[in-house]
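Intended use. Records such as the TonB-dependent receptor entry shown here are meant for training and evaluating sequence-to-structure methods. They are not intended to support clinical decisions.
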Amino acid sequence: MFHKRLIFSFILIFASANAFAIENAMDTIVVTGTRNNLALAEVNSNLSRVNQQEIATIAPTHITEVTNRVPGVWISRGNGQEHLTSLRSPVLTGAGACGAFYMAEDGISLRAPGFCNANQLFDINTLQSGGVEVLRGPAGVVYGSNAVHGVINLLSPDWQRLPELSVALEAGPNQYNRQQFVAKSSHSEHKFAVYGVTTNDGGYKNDSGFEQQKFDLLHQKEHRDYSIKNRISYSNLDQETAGFIQGFEAYEDAALKQVNPNPEAYRDSRSFRAWSQIEFAYSGAQFLLKPYLRYHDMAFLQHFLPWQATEENGQRSLGMLSSMAYQYRDIKVTTGVDVDSTEGWLKEFQEEPFSAAIPQGEHYDYEVQTTSLSPYVDLQYQLNDTLALLAGLRYEHSRYDYENLLSDGNACATDVDNCRFYRPEDQVRTFSNWSAKLGLHYSLSASQFVYSQLSHGYRAPQATELFRLQNGQVSANLDSENMVSLELGLRGQWQSLNQSIFYDVSLYCMEKSDHIFQDTQRRNVSEGETRHDGMELSINWQFTPSWQWTVALDYARHTYDNNPAITSGTDIRGNDIDTAPRFNANSSLKWSQDDYHVELEWYALDSYYLDPANTAKYDGHQLLNLRAAMPLSEHFSLSFRLLNLLDEDYAERADFAFGNYRYFVGEPRSLFITLSASL
């Protein structure tokens, strides 16, 4: 432990010994805070961006390597490409917990409202994206349902920033290899690009690994009166999944680290998405239309449950996001209507008998047709030269039309009283939600700003929470989850001729009500109350033209605010929610000159409890990563990444369930080498 702290202390001392990116970060254009292109200085909330160049340097094998650089975010990696998300929250699990996060590409949700999936970020081509923007905290007015704890929005690349032609070949441990390509052309006003990534990973653990292909087609047209950006995206994943290893601190046991208790586990997933972004001006107003369609299907073995049923689920959707922005004197108004229509389905089947209450055969087979309609308005009133008032309001109506394709009632034999699986009868459920926000944006100077916001987020129950019932629960009488947040932040930049420092610090307090969970009787209920308090800090210090130091850290407590029935006979009010580390930090020291680049990254994850009673615990970990790149000639370059530089034993994710400690093992020191060619 001491040598890791010593190395990081050296980084801090080295950085502090120099004088105060030469680029003005406050001028960075972002889109996630609102639906309009805004300079970061104008955004009245926290917002972090990992840009296209930084993503290329990280060259992520998993999206967690990107989001580690954003305060308040921890995407816990499972095996292969699987993950669970923490965003101003604990790592949330359960059938619909993923609905607390709005995961999007170009502002369009990756999955339909009501059909979230915990692993949905693996559908996106992160490696070749135009950037990742993260908005922490409720964003119901802008995004509607699911924007409870925050938004992760991946941006498609701009045609101008893509190379004419490029290929890259990458090799790593365990038969890992990855290929990527980009090709583009233009014809008059029309610009086209095709790009993609194929990955093969033999897997660190026995009988594991995955193959994945991601391909994108981009078309852009810029006209004096309008602009159009069209995108088609396809992703395919074939994964042999390794399960948890069990036993206290088993991730430190060399004899267990590569053991796969579930060699039969798998996950197959395919997604197709297509959308257009149409922008034009008319009568002094700016219009934005985003029609889209999405298709997804997935099959996997529930290796994390002792009876190991298989699940198939999917969805097909049509929808459109829209906005109209106009200026009336000192008031800027953005308004629009979002619509979505989705057909989703789910099947669960158990191949082998387990018990009378968990029978062999079909557990569930249902379809759900959902529609949502959501008008909204967002206002910015410039009170004077330094102070702006911001307010917004959204209404959303959701309808679930459910059809059970099997017999109604228990999935077990008629003489079984405590059947695990219950199939409700056909029904229609509707939910109506309002969301509001109110904020102030104050300019201390041309480059120093204070922002504050009172905001609200919500999510309607997910289809699995409503219709995948257990233990004789005939109907899930669930309410929508609600989150109220108060945030205060300070953002600014000091800049001289060759040096600059950008900072963003925010404090927040959030309270969630009607939190949906599964009680000790395995019934879906919405009685939970939780509290979330924290501080987040980002620093980007370019102290010479070649040297840069970045920091992203957060400290937070996520606690139970009542005593929900998730533990029997134990009062857990005030306890930390399980899988909620209080401290998370990332720091990088970077040197770059011409096309040469070297980066040393330090990442720290605090200890966290593994159960609501706070009796089981993981001690956390710290990692060092080294990355470097160099040109070989005018058209060729070589780069490498040495991850887990000190070869630490750690768990990507720790868990406590069915009376056992369970871990997804972090991989040992790993070297990845990439050869790139471009025109």
